[in-house]
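Input:
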Amino acid sequence: MSLGYVPHPDPETVLADCEQRALEREGIPMVLALEDLTGGLPPVRDASALAEGPELARLLGHYGERLRPGAADDDLKALASVLTVLARAHFDEGSKA
Amino acid sequence: MSGYGFAQHRAALREGRYLRVVNYHNTPQSTADQLRAELAAYAAAFACVTLEDLDRFYATGEWHLDRPGFIPVFYEGYLNNATVAAPICDELGIVAWFPIITRFVDCPVPDQRAFAEAHHIDLVEEELAAERLAMSWDDVARIAERHVVIPHTGSHEQISKVVTREDVEREIFEPRRAVERVTGREAPGFVWLYGAPYGMNPEQDAAVREAGYRYQISNTMIQRIA
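Output:
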């Protein structure tokens, strides 16, 4: 069942706000991927993460196309920028998932 | 692990493999009230992820938490992390992670400002005149009783500059030994300056694994590497 997360209407302004933050003294929210290079992570069975994760994936795609349309898939700097927007706009929604 | 990027990150999210973190650096006394309010709000909404929680997730694919997880992360080993952030976390019952620059902690107090300026360690204006800038090893030991302490290199070095065996010893191996010696606990993870991920620099990657680290934390992911 979709949680119905709505994309922020003005991600450009969110990104600009993120870029203005004082990194040396402000808390910066992020949404990190969990990767396993040992081959031991079983499929995730956490209901909350499985409900919310597809919403966040969809939003990451949306913000990526909107904010960094020409970025290469492996442009980690672009990915980090887009993730700051995702986190800034949707961090707290996880508590309602 | 070449090719990591947008597509893999979307896949991780879709499959439920993700975690919220909040990255902090300086936490001067002037920000204590704001930090307390922020952390209290996070603690009400999310469950702090301990090392045991993270290990368990990687073992089972389940969080076993009553709320979505998150990790507050306090970088560098600033004294203000020990005197402001850690006590607030303790007061709120929050478990945080502290990646520390071990040679910053080692640095004699009169040299700490010069060390910071030479190693990309940002200082805040209200502390420029402070005598001590880095936490002490006693602070590290005390923090480790309730929180997770991991090395953030020996001297805040970027991955491309850690080349020789001496570099590897100074930036990767000795920091782990130092943290474990002082805390009596495992230092399970490692973070490069600028958050480089595992998988793009074979020699440094091999050194990180050889040192015994199990996790590498980067700008965009947490990787279990062993």
